[in-house]
Amino acid sequence: MKNISFINLEKVLNSYNERKGWVCPSFLNQIHMKYRVTSLTVEQTREWGKQLGERLRGGDVIALIGDLGAGKTAFAQGIGEALGVIGPMTSPTFTLIHEYTAQLKGTQFRLVHMDLYRLQRPEEAEVIGVEDAFVDDAVCLIEWPKIIEDYLPEDRLDVEIIGSGEQVREIIIYARDLDWEFRLKDMT
Ligand SMILES: Nc1ncnc2c1ncn2[C@@H]1O[C@H](COP(=O)(O)OP(=O)(O)OP(=O)(O)O)[C@@H](O)[C@H]1O
Ligand SMILES: [Mg+2]
């Protein structure tokens, strides 16, 4: 009998990761499935945000990870567009939190957009009421989420944007559970 331990799992995983679009079936990677797409322009990044936005529902928390100028706010704007946010969605860099009225399939809820770059200590998250946004009647988008990682719900979605300036962006979406896998699998 063939000894399957000779299969180089790393190599198998990498070969999936080389592909565009959804890349890794969960039986090979128990932790999560990664989706990887590229974006050449800010409009494309917004469009990917919009595609994700169409798959969201109340209670979702999205952590937006990436360097300064990666395109986190652009991605958030695309989500806002999908959720029917009226008016411009500007960066909450100085205000920390912006809140919008959003709508999805006829249900109204809050779209909460945070930028925690200026937070100094995790405890400040309580003061500004970060967890108030982790409720069923809100969708919460968090730029610079690292400082509050202990507060973040396990079933959040992590979206990482790699690249900045004139570079092509790589957008990696980490589905942490089967529910996210199911909701994202037809993103094209
Ligand atoms: N493919 C791309 N995707 C997104 N933004 C791009 C792309 N190419 C160029 N850009 C430019 O990069 C900038 C991204 O700005 P944005 O405010 O969305 O970044 P950010 O990640 O939110 O930064 P910050 O950490 O400062 O909040 C914009 O000026 C945009 O025009
Ligand atoms: Mg931003």
UniProtKB/TrEMBL annotation:
Pfam families: TsaE. GO terms for molecular function: ATP binding; metal ion binding. GO terms for biological process: tRNA threonylcarbamoyladenosine modification. Keywords: ATP-binding, Cytoplasm, Magnesium, Metal-binding, Nucleotide-binding, tRNA processing. Its main location: cytoplasm. It is found in: Cytoplasm. This is tRNA threonylcarbamoyladenosine biosynthesis protein TsaE. Gene3D superfamilies: P-loop containing nucleotide triphosphate hydrolases. It comes from the Bacteria.
